[in-house]
Design a protein that fits this description.
elongated; three-stranded antiparallel sheet; two-stranded antiparallel sheet
Length: 126
């Protein structure tokens, strides 16, 4: 059994419901908790489970769409696959048009990259 905790959101994952119920009871004796029953989402990400295979997955699609809207890039072009490793980039290839360059810096770059890094690094379940 594993307990995932992020600020005031908590998710208990395990195969034995009796043990999960026991832990919830112990927690409720010391803390004010609200049991929302089986989790369908956490931190803006949808949870799907395959009980036969023993797999739990977090879908980040809704979270990423929310980020695109928040940073006003919802109409950006999408790619289904990552760039090839054979590609190389240099400063010479960057935009030479001032209008395009200034548009690139209108968004809070560090926040955008940090939010995307969160989805990549911090949501891997083991």
């Amino acid at each position: 059994m594993t307990l995932y905790l992020y600020v005031d959101d908590m998710l208990i994952v395990g195969a034995n419901m009796t043990e999960i119920d026991r832990l919830k009871k112990q927690l409720s004796e010391n803390f004010e908790i609200k049991d929302l029953s089986l989790a369908k989402q956490i931190l803006g990400m949808r949870i799907s489970k395959d009980r036969i295979e023993g797999i739990m997955n977090l879908s980040k699609e809704k979270y990423i769409k929310k980020l695109l809207h928040r940073f006003n890039v919802g109409n950006a072009k999408t790619k289904n696959t990552p760039l090839g490793t054979h590609l190389t980039f240099s400063k010479r290839q960057s935009s030479q048009i001032e209008e395009k360059e200034s548009h690139m810096f209108k968004g809070p770059y560090a926040s955008i990259v940090g939010s995307l890094m969160y989805t990549m690094v911090c949501t891997k379940l083991t």
